[in-house]
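Notes from hallway chat w/ T.B., transcribed later so I don't forget. T.B. wanted the structure written out for a chain they're using in a teaching module, and asked if we could keep both sequence and C-alpha cells in one place. Agreed to drop them here.
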Amino acid sequence: MRTTTFVVIAADGKPTYRGVPGPATVCKIYQTDQTYFAIEGLEHDSARAFFPKDVIAHSFAPSDAFPVKLSKARKALSRALLDDLARMKVEDKAAFD
C-alpha cells in the first residue's frame, strides 16, 4: 500500500520449492539500494535458474524514478516468467499441466 506519506509492504513467509526443500519459512521482502519490493508465489526455481528477486533487482537503475522502476521491473519479470514457463513446459510437462 502506498500513500503520499508512507509505504506498507507485506509478504507471506511460505516457501515454494522445486526440488530439495529448504527452510520452513522465508522472507520474500527484498531491498535494492533504496527500493524495497516483495515477491509472492514462486520465489525461486533453482532447477531452471529462475530467481525473480534477481530479475527485479537488476531491471532498473537506482536513479530511475519510482514509476520507471515499476515499469522496468514489470517488463523484465514478465519476460523472465514467460521464458521460465516455456522451459518448464518442455522440461517438466507434468508440473506444467
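Follow-up for T.B.: Residues 39 and 89 are 23 Å apart (CA to CA). Might be a good example for the class.
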